[in-house]
Amino acid sequence: MSSVISLTDIRRVFIMGDQQFEALKGVSFDVTAGEFVAIMGASGSGKSTCMNILGCLDLPTSGSYLLDGLDVGGMTTDQLADIRNKKLGFVFQGFNLLARTPAVENVELPLVYAGLHSKERRQQALIAMEQVGLAGKENNHPSQLSGGQQQRVAIARALVNNPAVILADEPTGNLDSRTTEEIMGLFTALNKQGITIIMVTHEHDVASYAGRQITFKDGRIISDSQIKRTD
Amino acid sequence: MDFLQTLKIALRALRTNKMRSFLTMLGIIIGISAVIAMMAVGTGASYVISQQIASIGSNIILVIPGSTTSGGLRTGSGGAQTLSSDDVKAIMAECPSVAYAAGTVRTSGQVVSGNMNWSSIIMGGTPELFEIREWPVVSGRPINQDDENGAIKVCLLGQTVAENLFGSADPIGSIIRIKKIPFTVIGVLDRKGQSPQGTDQDDAVFVPLRTAQRNLVRSQRTGIVGSIIVKAKSEELINKAESEIQSLLNQRHRITGGKEPDYSTRNLSEILAVAEKSAKAMSLLLGAVASISLIVGGIGIMNIMLVSVTERTREIGIRMAIGAKKNDILMQFMTEAVLLTMLGGLIGIALGTGGATVVSRLLEWPTMISFQSIAIAFVFSGAVGIFFGFYPAKKAAGLNPIDALRYE
Ligand SMILES: Nc1ncnc2c1ncn2[C@@H]1O[C@H](COP(=O)(O)OP(=O)(O)OP(=O)(O)O)[C@@H](O)[C@H]1O
Ligand SMILES: [Mg+2]
After folding, report:
1. What is the mean pLDDT of residues B56-85?
2. In CA terms, which of A33, B108, B373, B406 is 20 to 30 Å from B90?
3. Which structural domains are found in chain A, ordered by start?
């Protein structure tokens, strides 16, 4: 199977005044289509820095990143925006939904920037909302939804453009254990439908839903192993 | 992203903070309504003046008697009887830049028809008078040279006089008494409106000059005229005509050396043209002063848009992460700013129009709102939005998505 993601010797150096800090010190790994990867590691080990690069929100200082066969290095900010729009879906710890905007319009947002017409947008958004089990909540505003439901809206928004990969940075960080189970169940189900997921988490329980665990330490990968699912 | 969607997002953002949006717009509302009202007042004034210029007739020079000293008493300007019908003939014959010249006398008195009576101005004038004033009859016939030569007792009625004496009846052919002398009404003049001095020009009765000189006015000599009204051949020739008249009259009246002339000339068109120019300049000045408040309003918009960008940093981050390009974000905030100012502009146009109407009612000051000034105000309010919205929008579009997403 072909790699959706291929990182080779990725380095990321932050420069603050006359200080330099290397958050990623040569990270390489490939992700195959259909994988469910959990990234773990201590706080400050470079997980989010890596996710930002995977998410085309940030560019590596050196190393190469191929996403779905495309070399991301050297792209303009607008090209990166386009890649994020067409090939990636994001799920954040803090949900990051637009307040005072109905759920369905939040889900539609990527399609708005993709330039789809409103009818098509609405149709696809409703399908995505059904996929995450939120049929009937289309017109609720985020403030009228529980944390778990808000995260489902965020997942629907990540799904709606049929991305190559869904990136989730601590998606259950703000949820209680019962809701965490629900959300992880949803991720697992989506993964079974063939969707590639990369997820950062601190919790082993959460990581155990994934088929592969990559562990970071001080900007390096210290272990990368396939694990047996606990389902 | 399509424009409709951008507009929808902007409208939602404005609706979210209704009070703030309104207060922000207030600066533009006040600015635009002030500009509209001020322009209306100024344009109204210059319109009235230009109407008056048209009502006098174009390229007009007025010759009036000067002051004379008789027995140690000086009369005021126009008080003397120094101009005559012969002067009029000489001006017609000898001044090449003059198209027409007409002598007039003027008096006032009671005009009676049947049991109706009306006090009015009575003007004697040669047939040329109506050419010069560009004042045709609407019914009947004008005064002609035969009436003048024969000193026939015929008259033309101004609209006001005709209405007051005859109501809706046709006055042509009726006999009216002017200062107790019977005259036949031969025509009714077109409506003229107010004079530059504010008097009703239609409140007058016109008779042939010679008829008036013989029957209605008293004078020391025969052939005296109260004033001479002259029309130059063209606008360019007004000044030339004026100096031709002056040198002719100086010669005829034997004014030499340092002697003070016994007449004076007035270039009416010029006087009014100056007044019109200053009214226009005034309306521009008022507009300029008012537009300062627009700039103040624009700065208010910029201020609020900057606050809004800061407040919505996270939203901007989300939109960017999800695929919004720099230009999408720029357009979103620009649209918001322009929407604010254009909405303010529309409200301001409505208020300014209303205000101008109130001013014209209460102060009886003529106001005029041109389509042009509304269009300018609207475009200008949009331009204020673009100008003052650009910097905040640029700031929003330049945000780094990672930092923006992390913003608390
Ligand atoms: N913009 C930045 N400028 C400077 N240093 C940064 C920046 N972003 C991250 N770092 C540094 O890089 C290191 C890795 O940060 P990162 O956010 O990737 O950690 P993390 O593994 O996601 O930690 P956590 O589990 O707490 O989220 C940290 O030491 C952090 O201080
Ligand atoms: Mg992190």
Report:
1. 71
2. B108
3. 34-63+75-226 (3.40.50.300)
pLDDT greater than 80 at residue B110: yes
Q: How far is B320 from chain A (nearest CA, A)?
A: 7
- Nearest CA of chain B to the CA of A94: how many Å? 10
Reduce the DSSP state of residue A137 to 3 states and report it.
Answer: coil
Q: Which of B50, B95, B84 is nearest to B230 (CA)?
A: B95
Pick among A12, A90, A113 to test the B interface (most B CBs inside 10 A): A113
Note whether B389 and B301 are within 8 A (CB). Answer: yes
- The reported pTM is 0.74
| B301-355 confidence digits (pLDDT tens) | 999 999 999 999 999 999 999 999 999 999 999 999 999 999 999 999 999 999 8
**How confident is the model over B160-173, as pLDDT tens digits?**
999 999 988 899 99
Say if residues A190 and A159 touch (Cβ distance below 8 Å): yes
Which residue type does B336 have? E
pLDDT on residue B55: 73
Query: Which B residues in the span 13-32 are in contact with A, Cβ-Cβ below 8 Å?
Result: 16
